[in-house]
Design a protein that fits this description.
By secondary structure, the protein is α/β, with parallel strands linked by helices. Helices cover 39% and strands 24% of the residues. The C terminus is likely disordered. The structure holds calcium ion (CA).
Length: 223
């Protein structure tokens, strides 16, 4: 998933970003709400991790404003404010979940996975002989597990979240790279060709000039 991490404590930000990157997520850390708004204007995120006490404002007020402006991305609040009334205020402002600092990194990872799963009707997708388990982050060809690199998985996951539908190049490139990283023009083709080599030529259809589509799913939702 592509994750926007809004946290002004540099140590907490580094630790969380490193942990989530190890789990194959692309993480864009920002330290201010203004930067978060700018990032949201240019990247399609799957999840926002939001600290509340930030140098340029209060995260709850910001979230409330973004939600009323139509922001649909799931939000997990990370904060030291542990009073029940503050948790309720955060959830009422449009947060999907709440984690109190200090939090366990493995619990953070589990909640991130749970919020990712909530966006899809089912956590497994079948395409021909390939079965993709989005919750367990595993893929199998004819029942035998196939190992993917983090970036191969990022591309496959972005396609499997919308099986049978065109996924634009920009969406796939967002899934591949954290904010600010270089994206060379042919890098997406490289990962698509690696996925076809490992999982079969028919798995991913090219929609010329536009993007790619996970094939063999008849345009239906997740199986
Ligand atoms: Ca803070």
């Amino acid at each position: 998933m592509r994750i926007l991490l809004v946290e002004d404590d540099p140590d907490l930000s580094d630790v969380a970003a490193t942990h989530l990157r190890r789990q194959s997520h692309a993480v864009d850390p920002v330290a201010r709400l203004g930067e978060a708004s700018a990032a949201l204007a240019s990247v399609q995120y799957d999840l926002i991790l939001l600290d509340l006490g930030l140098p340029d404002g209060d995260g709850v007020d910001w979230l409330q404003g973004r939600r009323s402006a139509g922001l649909a991305v799931p939000v997990l609040i990370l904060t030291a404010r542990d009073q029940v009334s503050q948790r309720i205020r955060g959830l009422d402002a449009g947060a999907d979940d709440y984690l109190t600092k200090p939090y366990d990194l493995f619990e953070l990872g589990a909640r991130v996975r749970a919020l990712g799963r909530r966006q899809i009707a089912s956590s497994s997708v079948q395409s021909g002989a390939v079965s993709i388990d989005l919750a367990a982050r595993r893929v199998a060809l004819d029942g035998a597990e196939v190992r993917l690199t983090s970036r191969e998985w990022a591309v496959l996951e972005a396609l499997a979240l919308r099986p049978g539908h065109l996924v634009p190049r920009s969406r796939l490139e967002d899934a591949l790279y954290a904010f600010g990283a270089e994206v060379e023009s042919n890098v997406l083709e490289v990962y698509v060709s690696q996925l076809r080599r490992k999982l079969g030529r028919d798995l991913i259809e090219t929609v010329r000039g536009l993007g790619y589509r996970l094939g063999g799913t008849d345009g239906a939702g997740p199986a």
